UniProtKB/TrEMBL annotation:
Top-level taxon of origin: Bacteria
EC number annotated for this UniProt entry: 4.1.3.4
Keywords assigned: Lyase, Metal-binding
Organism: Microlunatus parietis
Native organism taxonomy: Bacteria, Bacillati, Actinomycetota, Actinomycetes, Propionibacteriales
GO molecular function: hydroxymethylglutaryl-CoA lyase activity; metal ion binding
Domain named Pyruvate carboxyltransferase: residues: 6-275
Identification of the protein by name: Hydroxymethylglutaryl-CoA lyase
Keyword Metal-binding found: yes
Family of the protein in this entry: Belongs to the HMG-CoA lyase family.
Pfam families: HMGL-like
InterPro entries in the record: Aldolase_TIM, HMGL, PYR_CT
Length: 300
């Protein structure tokens, strides 16, 4: 059977916008996040405190996070943090949940963080230690879990090793990313089985799919069948990854919600309202959302 309950982890304002070449002003970002919360999304990754030279789109992270009501009950606004400098900035802006990110492959660690796989874990270690000491929630992203644009296939054991190292540091929850969207449903069980051997329960694992080859929803269904209860998605299918060749959009939140409602889950998300939010942002950015569900619900 399928799990009783499923959580949606919205990444549009962070993973979505980080890859968008058209600069969105901070007021629009803040309004976007408020509207997402208004549609019933409960966890919204708001921004990232990375080097503004690497991700100019999110150079306004401090301004955006400070403008949100971070104490609102039932809502969480995690932020991405690459190093201690980023943690200092995030804490100063009031963050209560942070996410570190490492790669399952050597090449992407170099492209994304300018280091090795081991180096990425060393970079994350003091961030995790200090964040936990401050009582913050800590998520660990593992990218390139289902394939790498430079290295090709990825051994599930490599994913499990990285998860095990992060778990040793105290990382509470994990998001396994198909960063370039090449994964297919048959791989999901194999990756999860390897991660089981790392001793991290499936209740601590989220899956993060990209829809490059149109497989994201099939992969979600495979994840549900394996007992996974948290999925990342991006409103309107915003984003990709600026540091990975051939990475197109994240799974659209609207597509995920349509699937989940069809399976009988209550997500608390007002789907038509969410589609309108994506449409509104798309108009501001000068491009239509890629989600089929958004197109179906809002018309041409
Ligand atoms: P670096 O460029 O290798 O070297 O940065 P650096 O440490 O010398 O920093 C360069 C400049 O940035 C310096 O400024 C630093 O002070 C500054 P300068 O001296 O030249 O004026 N700097 C910072 N400024 C503000 N906040 C900071 C910060 N850190 C350094 N936190 C670093 C190393 C790791 C910081 C850099 O490579 C970086 O920011 N990388 C992150 C890139 C990124 O955001 N990638 C996308 C992540 S998303 C992902 O991985 C996948 C995921 O979405 C899931 C999926 O889709 O599968 C999670
Ligand atoms: Mg992504």
């Amino acid at each position: 059977g399928l799990p009783d309950r499923v959580d949606i982890y919205e990444v549009g304002p962070r993973d979505g916008l980080q890859a968008e070449p058209v600069l969105v002003d901070p007021a629009t970002k803040i309004e976007f996040i408020r509207r997402l919360a208004g549609c019933g999304l409960r966890t919204i990754e708001a921004t990232s405190f990375v080097s503004p030279k690497r991700v100019p789109q999110l150079a306004d992270a401090d301004q955006v996070l400070t403008a949100l009501d971070l104490a609102e009950p039932g809502l969480r606004y995690p932020v991405l943090v690459p190093n201690e400098r980023g943690l200092d900035r995030a804490v100063a802006a009031g963050a209560r949940d942070v996410a570190v990110f490492v790669s399952a492959t050597e090449r992407f660690a170099a492209e994304n963080l300018g280091t090795t796989r081991a180096g990425a874990i060393e970079l994350a270690a003091p961030v995790v230690r200090r964040a936990l000491a401050d009582g913050l929630g800590v998520r660990g992203y593992v990218s390139m879990c289902f394939g790498d644009p430079w290295e090709g296939s990825v051994e599930p054991g490599a994913v499990a090793d990285v998860v095990a190292r992060l778990a040793e540091l105290g990382v509470q929850r994990f998001s396994l990313g198909d960063t370039i969207g090449v994964g297919t449903a048959g791989q999901v069980a194999a990756v999860l089985a390897a991660v089981d051997r790392a001793g991290v329960g499936r209740d601590r694992i989220a899956l993060h799919f990209h829809d490059t080859y149109g497989q994201a929803l099939a992969n979600v269904v495979a994840g549900l069948a394996e007992g996974i209860t948290e999925f990342d998605a991006s409103a309107g299918g915003l984003g990709g990854c600026p540091f990975a060749k051939s990475a197109t959009g994240n799974l659209a939140t609207e597509d995920l919600v349509w699937l989940l409602h069809g399976l009988g889950y209550r997500t608390g998300v007002d789907l038509p309202a969410l589609a309108q939010v994506s449409r509104w942002l798309g108009e501001r950015m000068g491009r239509a959302p890629v989600s089929r569900v958004v197109a179906a619900l809002t018309g041409p």
